[in-house]
Amino acid sequence: MACAALPASAAPERTFVVADRPLSDDLNPGAVKTWPGGVTSHADLRYAAISGWRRLTLDLYMPPRKAGPKPLILYVHGGGWMNSDSRHFGAIADLPALLARLAGEGFVVAAIEYRHAREAAFPAQGHDVRAALRFLKANADRFGIDPARTGVIGGSAGAHLAGLLALSCGDARLDPDGTKAPAGSECVQAFVGWYGVYDATALAAQRPSGRDGGIEGLLGCTGGCPADKLALVSPVTYLDRSDPPTLLIHGTEDKTVPVEQSHLLEERMKAAGVPVSAIYIPGVDHSFMGKTPAETRAATLRAVNASFDFLHRQLDMPAAPGTR
Questions:
Q1: What is the spatial order of strands in the sheet that 276-281 belongs to?
Q2: What Gene3D superfamilies does its record include (predicted)?
Q3: 102 with 109: CB under 8 angstroms?
Q4: Which positions ≥6 away from 150 have C-beta within 8 Å?
Q5: Which of 109, 208, 256, 307 could anchor a disulfide with 61, C-beta 3.0 to 4.6 Å?
Q6: How many CA atoms within 13 Å lie on the side-chain side of 116?
Q7: pLDDT tens digit sequence for 109-133
Q8: In the chain, which stretches have pLDDT less than 50?
């Protein structure tokens, strides 16, 4: 049955704002939530729109706007480069509440999403982490950030990507071709890595097969990855003496990422003159999983508290003029 049209005299007049150009800004970010201590979080803020890919977003946790701009902490999630999201970290039951707690201690905290390996092979993930940091620095006034005081923290695959960001300051190999960005906009002043992969070549050599499936999935290789790709994906490749102070934390019984990965990076950093400290938690597996819930809780609390304290030591004071 045909629908009867409204008489012209009865049709409503619909008016709305029309811009003078097509818009691509993030006009409708997700939920806003308040937390103890006056912290406010904004979910799903878009930091990048890459043609042909899904929108890339982050959750932002901001302390009350008082006493000047605050240091920025970028959180990069783990999940084998294939899984998980910005609201999960190891055995922490409520990561958003933990990040809000960190914000309540005087940091702006951003938990980012990035493209998983089945969506895009490396170096797409490196591009995404850099894009998130640059977005936040470019909007420093809007978000109350001091762009000269930034830190990055991640666990497992997130520690790998955080390590790449921290150690590759000034290296264009982790930017898409044609990138034009302010010098140093990809640099950070502190790095915390939890049970991360830092040398893909050494990791593959530790496996009985001489290969690592996670790295192959990230790089899109089959039957082993060539040496140049393994070097490009390894944070140690970019290491030099100007890299930021670093804290490494790893369980000694990690069966997913061997603790030797953190030992290796610690030794290389010391040799290069980079300030580095490390905590090796005995008897603890990947994600700080102990043999009992009590051991898991103790290890996780130790790691979180050490990480918070480290970030305060490195970032609480304004950076000296000329600091990258």
A1: 32-35, 39-48, 56-62, 108-112, 70-76, 145-155, 190-194, 246-251, 276-281
A2: alpha/beta hydrolase
A3: yes
A4: 71, 72, 73, 74, 133, 137, 187, 188, 189, 190, 315
A5: 109
A6: 10
A7: 999 999 999 899 999 999 999 999 9
A8: 320-324
